[in-house]
Structure formats: C-alpha cells, structure tokens
Design a protein that fits this description.
The chain is an alpha+beta fold and 380 residues long. The chain has two domains: 257 residues, Aminopeptidase, CATH 3.40.630; 113 residues, Alpha-Beta Plaits (2-Layer Sandwich). It is built from ten helices and 19 strands. The strands form five sheets. It has a six-stranded mixed beta sheet with strand order 1-2-6-3-7-17, sandwiched between helices. Strands 4-5-19-18 form a four-stranded antiparallel beta sheet, with no helix packed on it. The longest helix has 20 residues. The chain is elongated.
C-alpha cells in the first residue's frame, strides 16, 4: 500500500508536467541561468517549510530539509542549464508527447525535484535524514560541472550520497562516470589581404589540416572500452577577402576508461602540434573542460536504494550505463553517486527534443522513492 508521501507524489504528476513546460520556456543557456534559477527559488519559497533556502554565488538554488541525524543525507541535483541560446522557447504538445528545446534535458528533472520537495513538505515520510534539493548551474558544455563542483565544496560534510536527475534517463541507472577532456585549439597567423598578401599562411587552412590529421586517431565505434573524439565547434577568419589571421576549434575526448582517455589525450596533442609548423602559425591548446571518470559498485547501498524504488514504482529492470552527468564530479571525489531519470524520449540537444508523458506517471514517484530510500540508508 502506498504511503501518504507516495500518494502525494502520484497526485503531483500532472502538475509536474505543467511545471516542466514553464521551466523549459524560460531560456537558460549555460552561464545565463539566472532567470530560471529565480523562478525555481520562488517555487521552493512557495512550497515553504525549509530549514534553509538560498541561491549561491554560482546561481545554484538549494532547499534543505533536515531530518534524523542518524540517517543518510542525500544531495539531489537537477541542472538548470541548456545547450540552447538565450531565445524564446515554446513547448509544443502532441498526443502523448511534449516537444521543444530542453524539455527533457533538463526541465522535466527540475520540475520533478520541485514535486519531490512539495511531497516532502506535505506528507513527510518518517525515518529519513537530511535532504538537499538543488537546481544547479553549469552542467552542460563549457559549464564544466561548475555548479555541482560548488555544491560539493560548499556543502562538504553535509551529505553522504548524490542523486543526479536527468529527464530522459528513466530506463537507465548510472554505474560508470564517463570521463572527458575538452580543449580549445587555436591557430594565429599574420594574415593579410587575399590578393595583396597572397602566399602568407592562412590560419583556417592550418587548423583544417590539424583537424584532418586527427582522423587516424578516431576510436572505432562499438569497441570497448568505449572512447570517442569529436570536433564540435570551428570558427575563424575576418572576411572572404582576408587571409585568415585566426581560427579556433573545440574538441571533446571521452572514455569510460581513464587510461584510454589519457592515451588519446597525449596522441591528440602530439598530432596537432606536428600538423601546425611553428614557422607558419602559432598554436595554442587550452583545456576548457574536465570530467573525471570512475564508477560505483553495483552492490553499493545507493544503487540498492534506487533499484528498490524502481521495483516499488512498477518499473522494469534497469539498464546499467555509463554517463556524463553531475554524478561524475561526486564520483571523482569518492562520494557514492548515480543518475536516475523521469521519462523516455529522444533528440536531446536538438530543437526536436521530445519526451513521452505517460511514463512520467511512474517516473515522478520513482525519483521520490529513490530520494527517500537513499535518505534512510545509514549515515556515512
């Protein structure tokens, strides 16, 4: 029989869907999450009853409910930021779906954390420790996990475990933290007029040659340990009739094996340096992101707490996966951490992003149960 807390979670499903739409329609590109953060802080304030509610210097919003000092303390994190520009967003409704930028990654998760907060205050379950509910900044792209980094620093010693929430991960439970290294690679030259100074080195051409030289290093798909390399951004030049004096690309290296990531890192840097002669252009390689690799044991009590929540929510067997989420930073610090989800969908990080609404009926209670189960574990 469902507890009053679980019944309250179930009653909040439709409201959570509407909340997700409101959150998604507030633009929140990385480093510009302020308006969405203000909204979430206001919603937590409307729920009320917190022992602490604040928005820190980074922009993270944190609502804390203190509990049994002998029980586990859990930090629940749903990131506010999106990969989309600061522009107007409209979420579309179709039969059984919601469509639009950030609806699944990660607006639904933010709405779900608010629902969990509402249920905790309206029908508090017994025997749980402290719960820290956070809507954090800086998870995507160049944010480099700066929100969760700040949370883990500022609240060090106040929590034992971390649950990251991602909207599109209902079927998955994260065991592995995919490590990543991100770089900005730049080439600068003297430049000049495309006619009058013809023959001088062109920064775009030099950078393009360096990128092409990386092709033999591309890891093969379907090979374990999975390792990837991607050039995701390229920009440069002044005008069509100017010999480009600068060009920049951004490159992302990932692996769930630290040794494979380190090997690829060394090879990438060596190849790029060899491809750009020093007498033709000045090369810079600047790291712009790092996410640690690591893992949590399948038999860790936190994973057990999540799996019990899945069972009690009527969900099927979990797909254990490796991911790149806010859980990575905690894992890198040696803190038990995993990532759970709310529904299923697709086309994340594109304007075509979409989610299924039906699974949310199970997803919201599942996340809520996972939070309480984690907060009932022994304190570390």
């Amino acid at each position: 029989m469902a507890t009053k807390y679980e019944q309250r979670l179930e009653s909040l499903v439709n409201a959570t869907i509407e909340e997700a739409i409101r959150v998604a329609e507030i633009p929140a590109p990385t480093f510009k999450e302020q308006e969405r953060a203000r909204y979430v802080e206001q919603r937590f304030a409307e729920i009320g009853g917190w022992d602490s509610l604040n928005r820190d210097r980074k922009g993270n919003v944190v609502a804390i409910r203190r509990g049994d000092p002998k029980r586990g303390r859990v930090l629940v994190a749903a990131h506010l930021d999106t990969v989309f520009p600061d522009s107007e967003v409209t979420i579309r409704r179709e039969r059984g779906k919601l469509l639009g930028p950030s609806i699944g990654d990660n607006s639904l998760s933010v709405a779900t954390v608010l629902a969990v907060g509402q249920a905790l205050q309206d029908a508090a379950p017994r025997g749980i420790g402290d719960v820290l509910l956070a809507a954090n900044v800086g998870e995507e792209g160049r944010g480099d996990l700066n929100g969760i980094r700040a949370l883990c620093k500022n609240y060090a010693g106040q929590f034992d475990r971390v649950l990251a929430v991602e909207g599109l991960a209902l079927d998955r439970v994260q065991l592995g933290a995919v490590g990543s290294l991100r770089y900005e690679i730049g080439v600068t030259t003297e430049g000049g007029h495309s006619w009058g100074a013809y023959g001088r080195p062109n920064a775009i051409q030099l950078l393009a040659g360096a990128i092409a030289a990386l092709k033999p290093l591309l890891p093969k798909a379907g090979v374990e340990p999975k390792t990837t390399m991607n050039v995701g951004v390229i920009r440069g030049g002044r005008s069509v009739n100017t010999i480009a004096p600068e060009a920049v690309c951004e490159i992302d290296l990932r692996s769930d094996d630290p040794n494979s990531l380190a090997t690829l890192d060394v090879a990438m840097k060596r190849t790029v340096r060899d491809a750009v002669p020093s007498d033709e252009g000045a090369l810079t390689i600047r790291r712009i992101g790092r996410r640690p690799a690591g893992s949590i044991d399948r038999n860790n009590p936190l994973i057990g707490a999540v799996l019990r929540a899945r069972r009690d929510s009527g969900l099927g067997a979990a797909q254990f996966n490796s991911g790149s989420t806010d859980a990575n930073h905690a894992t890198g610090l040696g803190i038990p951490a995993t990532c759970v989800g709310v529904t299923t969908g697709g086309e994340a990080h594109t304007p075509r992003e979409w989610i299924r609404t039906a699974p949310i009926k199970q997803g919201v209670p599942y996340v809520g149960r996972a939070v309480v189960n984690a907060a009932r574990l022994p304190r570390i």
